[in-house]
Amino acid sequence: MSERIEKLLAFLKDSPTDSFLNHALALEYIKAGDDIKARTYFEANLTIDPGYVATYYHLGKLVERAGETVAAIAIYEKGMGVAKTAKDQHTYNELQAAYEDLAY
Which domain holds residue 41? Predict the structure, then answer.
C-alpha cells in the first residue's frame, strides 16, 4: 500500500464523510491499479455528497474501462445534470465530451 493511500485512510478515520478525501483516495487506488477499491470510494462519495461533480467523470471513466457502457453513460448523464445545477460549465463540458464519445 502506498504512503499516500495510508495517509488518506488515516485522515478518513477522522473525517469519513469528507468528499475531497474520498475522491482523492479513489484516485490513488486507480494509480495503484485497484479499480475495485477506487469504485467503492467513488460510489461512497456520491452517496455522501451527490453534488461532488468531479466524481462523476472519474467514476464514469472507471466504469467505461470495465466495459460497462450503459452504466458509464448513466453516470455521465447524471453528472451533467449535477454540473448544470451547480453551474459548473467546465465539468459539464468534460462530462458531455465523455458521454458523446461513448454514446455516439
Answer: 3-103
